[in-house]
Amino acid sequence: MLKLGLTGSIGMGKSTVAAMFADEGVPVFDADAAVHRLQGPAGKVVAAIEARFPGTTGAGGVNRTALAEAVLGDDAAMKALERIVHPAVGLERAEFLEIHASAPLVAFDIPLLFETNGEKSVDKVAIVSATADVQRARTLARPGMSEAKFAAILARQTPDAEKRARADFVIPTDVPLDETRGHVRRVIACLLAREGG
User: What is the mean pLDDT of the chain?
Assistant: First the structure.
């Protein structure tokens, strides 16, 4: 089995590209979706997050806005949150690998792949990328997003140019969707050809 790490900064279109991989039959582990499940109603990490960050959870699980306010810009708080969440995501990832053990290729949709040294646990890395103007416009169009929040998120992410330089594949999303899908198909074909010999 080949493990592909799929990453990209906020607003780059990574979720769209992950869906394209899934459409092509590649099992995709979505780290963000796993975090949402773990932090949702009766989620496995809700009690630990409430204990460390009082007032950030409720009947619906973690209040993501309140939690973001508690950790953004505070490295110690962010590290404390990661110590709660990352091991739980690791267990979900192991379960995913067990379920898809016979797949020749799987993809791991991991926003902070390079930031967490996650590239060491995959065979190849594909980055989803767009111009800075496109990224900014997409991100600021999100509900609840502000210039300050965008800047704080970007500050925690490896710059796009560095990610592009470190990745094995670059998948552009500031082009027509069909073109992006063509890049996805070429990445898959390339990886499966290598796997086949």
Answer: 93
Beta bridge partners of 89: none
Please state, in angstroms and rounded to a whole number, the distance separating the CA atoms of residues 107 and 94.
13
User: Nearest-CA neighbor of 122 among 130, 132, 131, 110?
Assistant: 110
Going by CATH, does the domain composed of 1-27+105-197 fall within 1.10.260.40?
no
Q: Which residue has the tokens 């709660």?
A: 84
Domain coordinates in residue numbering, the chain: 1-27+105-197, 43-99
Per-residue pLDDT tens digits for 122-170: 999 999 999 999 999 999 999 989 999 899 888 888 999 999 999 999 9
Q: How many CB atoms lie within 10 A of CB 111?
A: 21
Q: What is the pTM of this model?
A: 0.83
pLDDT in the model for residue 152: 86
Residue 116 reports pLDDT greater than 90: no
Strand partners, 128: 171
Neighbours of 114 (CB within 10 A): 19
Strand partners, 170: 127
What DSSP string describes 123-145?
A: SEEEEEE--HHHHHHHHHTSTT-
> How far is Cα 125 from Cα 138, in angstroms, rounded to an integer?
23
Are the C-beta atoms of 97 and 141 separated by less than 8 Å? no
